[in-house]
Amino acid sequence: MLATSPPLPTTFTLSSLQTCKKTKTTPAHCSSPPPPPSPMDLQPKRVAVCGGGVIGVCTAYFLAKKGASVTLIEKSSVACAASGKSGGFLALDWCDGGPLASLARASFNLHRSLAEELNGTESYGYRPLTTLSLTVTESEKQSPPSRDKNLPSWVDGPARGLRAIGSTETTAQVHPQMFTKTLLSKAVENYGVEVVIGKVDSVGVEGGRVESVVLEGGRVIESDSVVLALGPWSGKFEMLSSLFRVYGLRAHSIVLEPKEPDAITPHALFLSYYPEQGGKPMDPEVYPRPSGEVYLCGMSSEVELPEDPEQIVGDPESLEVLKRVASTVSSHLVEGEARLKAEQACFLPCTDDSVPVIGEIPGVKGCYVATGHNCWGILNGPATGAAMAELIVDGQSTVVDLARFNPARFVGRRRKG
Ligand SMILES: Cc1cc2nc3c(=O)[nH]c(=O)nc-3n(C[C@H](O)[C@H](O)[C@H](O)COP(=O)(O)OP(=O)(O)OC[C@H]3O[C@@H](n4cnc5c(N)ncnc54)[C@H](O)[C@@H]3O)c2cc1C
Hints:
Elements lengths: L10 E3 L32 E5 L3 H12 L3 E6 L7 H4 L3 E3 L9 H17 L2 H5 L2 E2 L1 E8 L21 E8 L4 E3 L2 H16 L2 E4 L2 E7 L2 E7 L4 E3 L2 E4 L9 H4 L4 E13 L8 E8 L10 E4 L5 E8 L14 H14 L8 E14 L5 E4 L6 E5 L5 H18 L18 H4 L1
Parallel strand pairs: 2-3, 2-13, 3-9, 6-15, 13-20
Antiparallel strand pairs: 1-10, 4-8, 5-8, 6-7, 10-11, 11-12, 14-17, 14-18, 15-16, 16-17, 19-20
Bound molecules: flavin-adenine dinucleotide.
């Protein structure tokens, strides 16, 4: 009953059930033939993209490249959250066999072509990588097992069970913040995207069709289409949370600057790490970057999402564990041999079925969502953005079949739940 025709408020608010009344009204009795195309129909489509993470920025870039007139709205700063603090690891075929397979493959290839187009090697640290899986047991630090000669020389800790799980054909990396910022500056310079710093408070809807975005403080941005790409904060948006759950999973990371950066080779490490004090193995990841820095991440848990992305703090114990992992894996990463450049936390945007939500929101014409990319948002940003641009401008996506990601899959479920 509730599934097909929910009542449509004129404005959907971010934080509460309160709705703001709009003054503009449309006569309900129009039954005359459609008017001839007006000069307005020939104008580029005005699209407001809400959220300056990798998903919002990729969407803005591809929309503007297709000729739309795009305003990107970010409440804090571009790539201030997960899109600036993630690993930036990319894999061609790791999602094969699952619902993300075609999105991941299309995105991996788009990353390669974007890197050529935008000089990604120089501007955001794009490079192919070899990827290894290892078992590391902290208690074996003093008497390490015999060394596998195929280990990269800087991995001189107690490692066993070495396996190559990705090659330079199938795995790569970007610096996620530099990638997101580079793409946005190209979108601004080459395609005229306007960037507004402000908090999206509500989406104005008239007669079941989106018509504006309202910012905190009252500024109204008139739009033909709106894209909500708010990462884990999407869950705070009533229009979305009434349909499906998006929640944040906090994960930690550190960035180290070794004294001898040239010793660190382009090998990403996926660890099964057995801590000294026992307990379950952990699965931290280690990504050396072309700059010589080494990024480590892991230690995730569901905690409350702060309203302000700048107020996200990490759990000191989890950050300590990552430092211990670094010093166990490599003598180049122990305190004194490497400077701690950053210790931080951020939130993965997750959905209950672990599949991103990409498409038009049922019952609100012109209002789209792109979120829930979990641990693959940097990889899947480009194909998500390109597919969204096609969906909004052409009416359908050829880059990726978006059926599996359609928000309509939740219709009925959440309310029944
Ligand atoms: C530790 C860690 C490591 C990761 N490693 C990888 C990896 O190696 N490879 C990979 O592919 N992915 C990785 N990810 C996942 C990836 O980072 C995320 O999936 C991706 O960044 C999500 O992007 P987003 O644009 O959806 O969200 P976010 O980056 O969270 O961006 C959302 C933006 O919306 C803004 N916003 C929120 N509310 C409002 C509002 N009301 N008005 C205006 N703006 C608003 C926020 O300020 C924020 O800038 C990792 C994530 C973590 C946490």
